[in-house]
Structure formats: structure tokens, C-alpha cells
Amino acid sequence: MSHYFENDTDLKSNIRELKYTYNSSFFTFLSDNGVFSKKGIDYGSKLLLETYLKENITNVNVLDVGCGYGFIGIVIGVLADSYVDMIDINKRAVHLTKRNMKKYKGFNGSAFVSDAFSEVKKQYDVIITNPPIRVGKDKLLEILTESIEHLNKDGSLYFVIRKNQGALSIKKILEEKNKVEVLNRDKGYYIFKIKKL
Ligand SMILES: C[S@@+](CC[C@H](N)C(=O)[O-])C[C@H]1O[C@@H](n2cnc3c(N)ncnc32)[C@H](O)[C@@H]1O
Questions:
Q1: Which of 12, 45, 79, 95 is paired with 37 by a 20 to 30 Å CA distance?
Q2: Which distant-in-sequence residues (6+ apart) come within 8 Å of 6 by Cβ?
Q3: CA of 66 to the centre of ligand 1 (A)
């Protein structure tokens, strides 16, 4: 079975345009077959993004891990005046992110293919992710742990995960070595903020 995070080059393209409004700012995103949440922006991604924007963090270096078509990273780049790198293992997702980010002149950042942190050479003030769940708990924990390792001193990791996807057990594991805060909770989705202890 083909999962959205695999590179299926035979998959027929069917470009859609998705709309998103935050306060009075209006965004559009191209999505396509073979990428996550292609028919509409994911509720967990919106909750994560909007919880992050309420933190009022501006002018920082941000990494969006598993960017899909670039929804989270592009909106942060434009609205929070930050430099944003975006990575995904899925080539089609990265291609869409590149097309989407070009629409915003104020956007500063880049998008590139990377299997987790394989191609990431920098440290970041903020790492944000709606992480891949289907990769399994071990790989998920690896991505979250590597995210924490790629934070600058005093940097923070923000991520979303649902209760029925193991939110509380992931929290317990990360709490062993980090400060873990639940920033928001809605409809079974948890938004976590992690800092190194
Ligand atoms: C839950 S989706 C989130 C997508 C996007 N951020 C959004 O909010 O619409 C997770 C993303 O992680 C990507 N992914 C899966 N495994 C990965 C890996 N090993 N390295 C990087 N990205 C990966 C998937 O291709 C997918 O785009």
C-alpha cells in the first residue's frame, strides 16, 4: 500500500488549491495526490500553527519537519517574520512547498528533501512539526529526539499529537530529559512545547 510519505513518482497529479485565513491574512496552498491532507488543511496542523502564533515569537530561525505542502512553515515565515527552513522525505511535497512559498514575497527560507535530519546542517531557535505517525513509535521518537538535539540553547520544539496516537506516553518519555508543557488541547489533539532541561 502506498503511504503519503513515500515517493510514488507514478501517482497521477491532481493539483488542488486550499485556502486559509488567519485574522485578516489570506493564504492559498497548492496540494496534490500523494501528499498529506491533500483535500483540506489538517485540523491538528491548524491548531499547532495557531497555538504557536499566539506565542508571539518573531525574528527567529525556524525548521518545519515534515512540511507537506508547506502550510505551517510558510504561514510562520509570513506572519511571524521569521526565516523558515522546511523539510520532507516526500519529493512531491517539497516541490509543492517550493511553489507555494514563491507566492509570498515576504517569505524568507528554503525547502529541501531530507529523511528526518539527514540533510539538516543547522541548529534552530524553533522546530515545529506535525510529525508522521505512520512511521511507528520508534521512528517518531527518533524524529522528536533529533529535533531537540537540533535546537539552539533556549530553543523550543513545538508539536501536535492526538491522544489516541500515544500523546501521553510520548509526553512521559520526553519528560525524562526535557521540560514538557501542554500549550493547548482540543478534540483529542495535544500541542506540546519542549525545552531541554
Ligand atoms: C502529518 S504530515 C504533516 C504535513 C504538513 N506539515 C501539514 O501540516 O500539512 C507529516 C509529514 O512528514 C513527512 N515525513 C514522513 N516521514 C518522514 C521522514 N522520515 N523525514 C521527513 N519527513 C517525513 C510526510 O511526508 C508528511 O508530509
A1: 79
A2: 34, 90
A3: 3
Pocket of ligand 1 (CB under 6 A): 4-5, 36-37, 42, 45, 66-68, 71-72, 87-90, 93, 114-116, 130, 132, 135
What is the residue with the minimal CA distance to atom 25 of ligand 1? 5
pLDDT digits (tens, 9 = 90+) for 4-20: 656 777 789 999 999 99
174 Cβ partners below 8 Å, 6+ apart?
A: 144, 148, 180, 192, 194
Interval 176-192: pLDDT, tens: 999 999 999 999 999 99
Handedness of CA 157, 158, 161, 163 (dihedral sign): positive
Residue from 71, 190, 17, 166 nearest 180 by CA: 190
Question: Helices (DSSP H) in the chain: which residue ranges?
Answer: 43-53, 71-79, 91-102, 137-149, 167-175
- Cell numbers found for residue 103: 507566492
Q: Count Cα neighbours of 22 within 13 Å in the Cβ-side half-sphere.
A: 19
Q: Note the pLDDT of residue 16.
A: 97
Q: What is the number of the ligand 1 atom nearest to the C-alpha of 48?
A: 8
For the entire predicted model, the pTM comes to 0.96
pLDDT score, position 3: 61
pLDDT of residue 1: 42
C-alpha triplet 104, 119, 154: angle, nearest 5°: 75
